[in-house]
Amino acid sequence: MGVVKKDDGWRVPDELWRRIKPLLPARPEHPLGCHNPRVPDRQALDGILLVLRTGMQWGALKATGLCHPSSAYRRFREWLAAGVFREFWRQGLLAYYGLARIDWRWLALDGTQGKAPLGGEKTGPNPTDRAKRGTKRSLLTDSRGVPLGLVVAGANTNDFKLARATLESIPVRRPLPSRSRRQTLCVDLGYAFRPVRELAQEYGLTLKAPKRGGPRSPKLSRRRRPSPRWMVERTHSWLNRFRRLLVRWEKREDTYVAMLHFALGIITWFHSLLPK
Fold first, then answer.
1. Residue-wise pLDDT tens digits, 139-167
2. Whole-angstrom Cα distance, residue 77 to residue 81?
3. CATH number for domain 85-212+225-273, candidates 1.10.540.10, 3.20.20.120, 2.60.40.10, 3.30.420.10
4. What is the maximum span of the chain, computed from C-alpha positions, in angstroms?
5. Which of 37, 38, 214, 226 has the highest Cβ tally under 10 A?
6. What is the mean pLDDT of residues 14-37?
7. How far apart, in whole angstroms, are the C-alpha atoms of residue 210 and residue 207?
8. Residue 176 region, left (φ>0) first, then alpha (ψ -120 to 50), else beta?
9. What is the pLDDT of residues 57-71, one digit of tens each?
10. What 3-state DSSP class applies to 10?
């Protein structure tokens, strides 16, 4: 009788496994066989999730006994090439959209900077961290904080320059706005430029942004509803709970974006599975 391992809270939940399992590509058996059996997909995914959640090095997986580092990383690269992690996020949005829960009426766009000590693709000098290497992620969410779009750039890239790419990165069809169903895009002062206003007009969005050089808005009372822009800041905070994303150790852009897509998929699916 085998030993049953106790769930330590770092493994993929059953419900999420049922959602991602059909997306995994099938690998044919080697014609000459193999002396080492292939690591089960779920075990490899548990190892990938452990790296994502804790920020540990791939090599540290060996000490956990969960999965060999080379097996987990090899499977991660295979699934990255097959587009599994982005599709996992997209399927979560489709399920959430099917439940009519995406609130297209209020969209929030914001960017945040993070450290990238090893440098690599899509990194640059961070103007808020003594010009050390850093990265920026630009995120679009609805009013509930569900991630709808994401792009990555160097930390020295202005937020407003990523607005178009972030809107174009939405993996599901955005309904066209109308007079009865307007779509408002909430941004901060970093987007208060003419290109963003022209972009909002092109996409049929009502831009809600502070005016540069204008007076500060009065302090909100407790009865007044705050701007939905705080929802995107909360989603950035959710992403930082995945410690692999708080400090970027990936030199390659595709591996870093794949980690982001995996985290976005987890956040989206948890929203979709919550009772309405």
1. 999 988 999 999 999 999 999 999 999 99
2. 6
3. 3.30.420.10
4. 74
5. 38
6. 80
7. 10
8. beta
9. 999 999 988 889 999
10. coil
